[in-house]
Amino acid sequence: xxxxxxxxxxxxxxxDATLHxxxxxxxxxxxxxxxxxxxxxxxxxxxxxFGDKNGLIEATMRHVLRDxxxxxxxxxxxxxxxxxxxxxxxxxxxxxxSQISAPVMKTWLAFWSQSMHEPSLKRLQHVxxxxxxxxxxxxxxxxxxxxxxxRSASGLAAMIDGxxxxxxxxxxxxxxxxxxxxxxxxxxxxxxxxx
Length: 195
Fold this sequence. Notes:
By secondary structure, this protein is an all-alpha fold. The protein has a domain at about 60-195: Tetracycline Repressor, domain 2. The protein has helices spanning about 5-30, 30-40, 45-50, 55-80, 85-95, 100-115, 120-140, 145-170, 175-195. α4 packs across α6. The longest helix is centred in the middle third of the chain and has 26 residues, at about 55-80. Pathway: Amine and polyamine biosynthesis; betaine biosynthesis via choline pathway [regulation]. Keywords: DNA-binding, Repressor, Transcription, Transcription regulation. This is HTH-type transcriptional regulator BetI. InterPro entries: BetI_C, DNA-bd_HTH_TetR-type_CS, Homeodomain-like_sf, HTH-type_TetR-like_transc_reg, HTH_TetR, Tet_transcr_reg_TetR-rel_C_sf, Tscrpt_rep_BetI. It comes from Trinickia violacea.
């Protein structure tokens, strides 16, 4: 009889192994066998919990996205109630420590690429994109007309993604403070136009 709670322990162990395998071997080089070997368990157990590689990648991205959503909720809750502070909280969450380790960054890059071909990953990407846009739009909407809020939300979302992507691809340590500063300057410019 399996131990109580073992399922969640195994899933977490396999997700961690997946992140590190993608970091070292890339998505194309990641196999159930490599993940199992890294986790020191049988390939059959990986298949039991996730079915196939796509199921494993989807579960791994759901884990990464939960970390992002938790960071966003935590930072928004701690922010002052004004739009500037709450927008800055959303920006900071996207550059949270949970999102910038090498294994997570490489997994994000692999996810974005694979989401163009895999419907379940495309749905996850769509949910993530809509959630970011919705959060930004709601805050900008408190300071400017609806059409301007939508444009501002689209622009800031693109800036966040662009700064994150440049940081991920630079090959150097990610200067998150500089990225956050640039995004915050952009927020200030947008809000100043509607003050």
